[in-house]
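Q: Tyrosine--tRNA ligase, please. Structure only.
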Amino acid sequence: MNHSVVTTFPLTETVGQALEVSLRGADELLPQQEWVQKLARSQATGQPLRIKLGLDPTAPDIHIGHTVVLNKMRQLQDLGHQVIFLIGDFTSLIGDPSGRNSTRPPLTPEQIKVNAETYYRQASLVLDPARTEIRYNSEWSEPLGASGMIALAAKYTVARMMERDDFHKRFTSGQSISVHEFLYPLMQGYDSVALKSDLELGGTDQKFNLLMGRHLQQEYGQEPQCILTMPLLEGLDGVEKMSKSKNNYIGISEPANTMFAKVLSISDTLMWRWYTLLSFRSLAEIARLKAEVEGGRNPKDAKVMLAKEITTRFHSAAAADAAEQDFANRSKGGVPDDIPEVQLAGAPLGIGALLKQANLAPSSSEANRLIDGGGVRVDGGVVSDRGLKLAAGSYVVQVGKRRFARVVLA
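A: Structure for Tyrosine--tRNA ligase:
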């Protein structure tokens, strides 16, 4: 019952460009030939393709690593296709076993609802909300009921399920796998049937689940979707994938100044990878910029452009300009605009006690260590004497490159 795409539509230049956009930064596009034909048919008939991204609202906050697939959605949305932001409120009740070596605890419906709202609000900073269809998979999963679930489970074999990498590893190492975990890929695949999806996006760790959607669509007599996997973005360290637990991430709701400074902290090599996966500049533009840097232009110029683009997307152009200014002030040893003010009593006060009371050092001994290392400045001058006592007055105190306080001492 294979309803594969009939190859009758002309491959125009526009189709070639759409394929280039699809492949940009992608890990795999399967099967590429079918996708080309879907694009050609869409162009010939004027019928947009249906592009699905499913997200389980397991954590309320997203970092820029999560936006790699959202950026791809936006690129395809800008080509005129219909993107569907699918919130897995039903599948979250099961818990995705992808990459897990133990059963994941399911969330409560209340947690899911709160997380889903936050997720969508954050995703709208990348997608065009006016052209995004939002769906919840409880819409068709709940009515399926027990008999529907049994009929669905009959369409896949246990042997195929056990080919899945994490199931296979857990089974061979004697770790437990609950029966309900088999339902997760089945339900995610059924979403593609319900939405008549033409293309499903996901991270490389989702490949098994995405192929399940393709298999089930054929079982239900539909034309199967193509799948597009995107790589997992390396974090600030350039080594590990971006994650909160590794603390190498940029949260998309972080302040503009922090976001800007964090982008500038990445290596010159990693910057190009981020350009491909996170920037909305064309590949030709990025290639030109890279050639300029290779020809002697300061790589920092390119990094500042990237930092401004990302900060503008999640804040505003004005906030990005202000963040650039703030960063320049700090690197010149200048004082940023928005520094906290601390009122302290007890003048004359020793510098160690002042740093501790102003929350610029966790303890007096740590304050002394910072002074010995030349890391403390008062009104721009480096403090070298641990025994310094400050009289009543107002001082700008700086610890390291980034920590400032205006201390008013009485």
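A: Brief note, in case it's useful. The mean pLDDT is 89.
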